[in-house]
Amino acid sequence: MVEKTQRPLWIKDPLAILAEGAQRGVVVIDGRIVELVPTGRRPTTPDVTTFDAGAHVVLPGLINTHHHFYQTLTRAVPAALDRELFPWLQALYPIWARLTPEALDLAVTLALAELLLSGATTTTDHHYVFPKGLEEAVDIQVGAARRLGVRVLLTRGSMNLSQRDGGLPPDSVVQDEDTILADCERVVKRYHQRGEGATVQIALAPCSPFSVTTSLMRATAELAERLNVRLHTHLAETEDENRFCQALYKCRPLDYLEDCGWLNARTWLAHGIHFTADEMTRLARAGTSVAHCPCSNQTLASGTCPVCAMEDAGICVGLGVDGSASNDASNLMQEVRAAFLLQRSRYGVGKVSHFDALRWATAGSAACVGRSDIGEIAVGKMADLALFKLDELRFSGSGEPLAALVLCGAHRADRVMVGGRWLVEDGHIPGLDLADLMRRHSAAAKRLQGAA
Ligand SMILES: [Zn+2]
């Protein structure tokens, strides 16, 4: 889990760094940050090799708290354009029902590469489409994540409330409760790593109130407690969802969540747009956190997540790109800018700065995924770092480097380190043929969408 390095590495004299007292950089040994080097000092760690970071702005590795990797195969699908969530889903479900293991492997690899090149070092994924033949979706995802070396918290998603039973998805993409729960337990036991430095973790994630039965929601919460893993689902994304809950369960989505045994610190929720002030207080008291997905929310016109009101109430908020059918990019650094712009326009200049947006994507996201060993550049934390250069046209003439990343629109990291190991060097992922990956991924997307 932790990369053993030959000698301590001093990431020296960065142009700027998002950390207190590390103006001259950080020292990394065996996958961890062991020293912050302040102005006027040299490392006290002996025998260091150096990486000259004089052209780099250094951030904690970004953490993506919500995604659906398979959706990279259905970006900008004509039938789903200009639709809100429910009709958007209904346009895409029949396409997703044709997903194959080979296509999923390409989609996951491509999404991970896209995230990594944007500065992400940890990502979640929420895979909830299990058509026949794709029973081992999580295994495929673990394989791709291990090949690339990105930290992942893969959620074993599920849907068991299909059109036949009054739900939204077609019958062909759902599984029955027993099959779902057995596979949840299997993948947790097989892949979930515990403790600091974990590279592969598993959480349980029924898709949403409108695609899962109450029985499965309750049983999943009980299983997560027994196996001691996290819980994830979509909640409070749209007014349609409020109406659905009101009609079917005679309550609001959060009441339903609580009734199902989900309102606790194990849970992080995607979106959280339509909570009332009272509901925010309840979420904060329970320790439930929220993944804010600004691009997806704007594309589907779902509403604006009240991030500052949630933080004021005491809720931890992280950032997510959401699936690539509603973003449609998997670029977490661009998501930081989107969050900054959206929340500043809602709350004003005195309330939201570029530091807040960077904090949501790092420390805030770390809280969502339940980890204290990542999300910050500090002694003892894992050496997960994203280094950006300001050498593109868009940065020319910029003053404050950390502000420039957000305001000028950084989108591609020059170097990315996970657990002390460089996974991106000079803007490339060593050993990954991106052109070949894109060619095969595009062909798979065409087949899936029925164009070939
Ligand atoms: Zn989502």
Describe the structure.
By secondary structure, this protein is α/β, with parallel strands linked by helices. 36% of the residues lie in helices and 18% in strands. The chain contains 14 helices and 17 strands. A 5-stranded mixed sheet has the order 2-6-15-16-17, with helices on one face. A 4-stranded mixed sheet has the order 4-3-1-5, with no helix packed on it. α2 crosses α14 (434-448). The longest helix has 17 residues, at 101-117. The protein is globular and about 70 Å long. The mean pLDDT is 96. The chain binds zinc ion.
Task: Record the SSE blueprint.
Blueprint: E1 9-12, E2 16-17, E3 25-29, E4 32-36, E5 49-52, E6 56-60, E7 62-64, H1 85-96, H2 101-117, E8 120-127, H3 137-148, E9 151-158, H4 177-191, E10 200-206, H5 214-227, E11 231-235, H6 239-249, H7 253-259, E12 267-271, H8 277-286, E13 289-292, H9 294-299, H10 307-313, E14 317-319, H11 332-347, H12 354-368, E15 385-389, H13 401-407, E16 415-418, E17 421-424, H14 434-448
Parallel strand pairs: 1-5, 2-6, 7-8, 8-9, 9-10, 11-12, 12-13, 13-14
Antiparallel strand pairs: 1-3, 3-4, 6-15, 15-16, 16-17
This protein binds zinc ion.
Radius of gyration: 21 Å
Poorly predicted runs of 5 or more residues: none
Bound molecules: zinc ion
Describe the main β-sheet briefly. Answer: 5 strands, mixed
How large is the share of residues in beta strands?
15-25%
- Helix-residue proportion: 25-40%
Structural class: alpha/beta
- Give the number of DSSP strands: 17
Mean pLDDT: 96
What's the helix count?
14
- Largest sheet strand order: 2-6-15-16-17
Shape: globular
Cα separation of the termini: 41 Å
